[in-house]
Amino acid sequence: MPSFDIVSKVDGQTLDNAINNAKKEIANRYDFHDSKTEIELDKKTNIVKVLTENDMRMKAIQDVIIGRMVKQHLDANCLDFGEEEYASGNMIRKDIKVKEGIDKELAKKIVKKIKDSGLKVQASIMDEQVRVQGKKIDDLQAVISLMRGENFEQPLQYINMRA
Protein backbone atom coordinates (compact mmCIF):
# COMPACT_ATOMS: atom_id res chain seq x y z
CA MET A 1 0.00 0.00 0.00
CA PRO A 2 1.56 3.36 -1.01
CA SER A 3 2.58 5.60 1.89
CA PHE A 4 4.75 8.53 2.94
CA ASP A 5 5.79 10.23 6.18
CA ILE A 6 5.31 13.83 7.26
CA VAL A 7 8.22 14.97 9.43
CA SER A 8 9.80 18.19 10.67
CA LYS A 9 13.59 18.12 10.61
CA VAL A 10 16.37 20.67 10.31
CA ASP A 11 19.71 19.74 8.75
CA GLY A 12 22.24 20.23 11.55
CA GLN A 13 25.19 21.08 9.30
CA THR A 14 23.23 23.66 7.32
CA LEU A 15 21.97 25.23 10.56
CA ASP A 16 25.54 25.31 11.89
CA ASN A 17 26.69 27.05 8.69
CA ALA A 18 23.89 29.63 8.96
CA ILE A 19 24.76 30.43 12.59
CA ASN A 20 28.51 30.66 11.81
CA ASN A 21 27.78 33.03 8.90
CA ALA A 22 25.57 35.13 11.19
CA LYS A 23 28.43 35.31 13.74
CA LYS A 24 30.83 36.53 11.03
CA GLU A 25 28.38 39.12 9.74
CA ILE A 26 27.74 40.51 13.22
CA ALA A 27 31.47 40.60 14.01
CA ASN A 28 32.04 42.71 10.87
CA ARG A 29 29.15 45.14 11.36
CA TYR A 30 29.95 48.67 12.44
CA ASP A 31 27.03 48.95 14.88
CA PHE A 32 28.38 45.91 16.76
CA HIS A 33 31.91 47.30 17.01
CA ASP A 34 33.18 47.00 20.63
CA SER A 35 30.08 45.09 21.76
CA LYS A 36 30.16 42.03 23.99
CA THR A 37 27.82 40.00 21.78
CA GLU A 38 28.00 36.20 21.87
CA ILE A 39 26.14 33.73 19.64
CA GLU A 40 26.50 30.01 20.23
CA LEU A 41 24.73 26.95 18.82
CA ASP A 42 24.36 24.04 21.23
CA LYS A 43 24.15 21.11 18.81
CA LYS A 44 22.96 18.59 21.41
CA THR A 45 19.92 20.55 22.57
CA ASN A 46 19.42 22.51 19.30
CA ILE A 47 19.35 25.86 21.08
CA VAL A 48 20.99 29.06 19.81
CA LYS A 49 22.20 31.07 22.81
CA VAL A 50 22.48 34.83 22.25
CA LEU A 51 23.97 37.32 24.71
CA THR A 52 24.16 41.07 23.97
CA GLU A 53 23.80 44.54 25.53
CA ASN A 54 20.39 45.89 24.51
CA ASP A 55 17.07 45.22 22.76
CA MET A 56 18.10 46.96 19.56
CA ARG A 57 21.10 44.69 19.12
CA MET A 58 19.04 41.61 20.03
CA LYS A 59 16.52 42.49 17.28
CA ALA A 60 19.36 43.04 14.78
CA ILE A 61 20.87 39.65 15.71
CA GLN A 62 17.51 37.91 15.21
CA ASP A 63 17.16 39.56 11.78
CA VAL A 64 20.67 38.47 10.78
CA ILE A 65 20.04 34.86 11.91
CA ILE A 66 16.76 34.71 9.98
CA GLY A 67 18.43 36.20 6.90
CA ARG A 68 21.28 33.70 7.02
CA MET A 69 18.86 30.79 7.46
CA VAL A 70 16.89 31.88 4.40
CA LYS A 71 20.12 32.10 2.38
CA GLN A 72 20.94 28.52 3.46
CA HIS A 73 17.42 27.42 2.32
CA LEU A 74 16.22 26.73 5.87
CA ASP A 75 12.72 27.71 6.95
CA ALA A 76 12.89 30.37 9.68
CA ASN A 77 9.59 29.06 11.11
CA CYS A 78 11.61 26.33 12.83
CA LEU A 79 12.99 28.96 15.23
CA ASP A 80 11.14 29.59 18.48
CA PHE A 81 12.22 32.99 19.80
CA GLY A 82 11.55 32.69 23.52
CA GLU A 83 11.48 35.42 26.11
CA GLU A 84 14.44 37.68 26.75
CA GLU A 85 15.94 37.52 30.21
CA TYR A 86 18.34 39.91 31.86
CA ALA A 87 21.76 38.47 32.60
CA SER A 88 24.45 39.97 34.84
CA GLY A 89 25.05 43.68 34.46
CA ASN A 90 23.25 45.30 31.56
CA MET A 91 23.34 42.19 29.35
CA ILE A 92 20.31 40.49 27.76
CA ARG A 93 20.19 36.73 27.12
CA LYS A 94 17.87 34.86 24.78
CA ASP A 95 17.64 31.15 24.04
CA ILE A 96 16.30 30.48 20.54
CA LYS A 97 14.97 26.92 20.27
CA VAL A 98 15.14 25.05 16.97
CA LYS A 99 11.89 23.11 16.63
CA GLU A 100 12.32 19.55 15.38
CA GLY A 101 9.87 16.70 15.32
CA ILE A 102 6.09 16.94 15.28
CA ASP A 103 4.60 17.21 18.76
CA LYS A 104 1.27 15.54 19.63
CA GLU A 105 -0.80 18.74 19.26
CA LEU A 106 0.50 19.47 15.75
CA ALA A 107 0.18 15.80 14.75
CA LYS A 108 -3.49 15.82 15.79
CA LYS A 109 -4.07 18.99 13.73
CA ILE A 110 -2.43 17.40 10.69
CA VAL A 111 -4.47 14.17 11.00
CA LYS A 112 -7.70 16.16 11.45
CA LYS A 113 -6.93 18.27 8.37
CA ILE A 114 -6.29 15.12 6.31
CA LYS A 115 -9.52 13.44 7.51
CA ASP A 116 -11.57 16.60 6.87
CA SER A 117 -10.28 16.73 3.28
CA GLY A 118 -12.33 13.67 2.31
CA LEU A 119 -9.44 11.97 0.53
CA LYS A 120 -9.35 8.18 0.75
CA VAL A 121 -6.22 7.91 2.89
CA GLN A 122 -5.39 6.89 6.45
CA ALA A 123 -3.20 9.10 8.62
CA SER A 124 -1.60 7.75 11.79
CA ILE A 125 0.70 9.32 14.38
CA MET A 126 4.00 7.51 14.90
CA ASP A 127 6.35 9.06 17.49
CA GLU A 128 7.34 12.45 16.03
CA GLN A 129 5.97 11.89 12.53
CA VAL A 130 2.69 11.27 10.73
CA ARG A 131 2.37 8.35 8.30
CA VAL A 132 -0.16 8.67 5.49
CA GLN A 133 -1.32 5.57 3.56
CA GLY A 134 -3.65 5.27 0.61
CA LYS A 135 -4.47 2.98 -2.30
CA LYS A 136 -3.69 5.58 -4.97
CA ILE A 137 -0.51 7.62 -5.28
CA ASP A 138 -2.61 10.49 -6.64
CA ASP A 139 -4.44 10.68 -3.29
CA LEU A 140 -1.10 10.85 -1.46
CA GLN A 141 0.09 13.65 -3.75
CA ALA A 142 -3.18 15.49 -3.10
CA VAL A 143 -2.48 15.23 0.65
CA ILE A 144 1.01 16.69 0.14
CA SER A 145 -0.38 19.64 -1.85
CA LEU A 146 -3.08 20.15 0.81
CA MET A 147 -0.43 20.23 3.56
CA ARG A 148 1.75 22.68 1.61
CA GLY A 149 -1.23 25.03 1.36
CA GLU A 150 -1.65 25.14 5.14
CA ASN A 151 0.46 27.01 7.69
CA PHE A 152 1.31 24.83 10.68
CA GLU A 153 3.84 27.30 12.23
CA GLN A 154 6.57 24.74 11.56
CA PRO A 155 8.28 23.54 8.37
CA LEU A 156 7.15 20.09 7.23
CA GLN A 157 8.95 17.63 4.95
CA TYR A 158 7.43 14.72 3.07
CA ILE A 159 9.73 11.70 2.97
CA ASN A 160 9.78 7.92 2.34
CA MET A 161 7.27 7.92 -0.52
CA ARG A 162 6.64 4.24 -1.26
CA ALA A 163 4.54 2.99 -4.13
Structural commentary:
This protein has 163 residues and is an alpha+beta fold. The protein has helices at residues 12-28, 55-71, 104-116, 137-149; strands spanning 3-7, 38-42, 47-52, 79-86, 92-98, 121-126, 129-134, 157-162. The strands form 2 sheets. The chain has a 4-stranded antiparallel beta sheet with strand order 6-7-1-8, with helices on one face. Strands 2-3-5-4 form a 4-stranded antiparallel beta sheet, covered by helices on one side. The model has no long low-confidence stretch (mean pLDDT 92).
Structure summarized in a few sentences:
Helix content is 37%, strand content 30%. With 163 residues, it is of the alpha+beta class.
Can you give the mean pLDDT?
92
Secondary structure tally: strands: 8
Tell me the fraction of residues in β-strands, as a range: 25-35%
Order of helices and strands: EHEEHEEHEEHE
Instruction: Give, in spatial order, the strands making up the sheet with the most strands.
Output: 6-7-1-8
Biggest sheet overview = 4 strands, antiparallel
The chain-level structural class is alpha+beta
Through-space gap between termini? 7 Å
Shape: elongated
Number of helices: 4
State Rg.
19 Å
Give the helix level as a range of percent: 25-40%
Low-confidence stretches: none
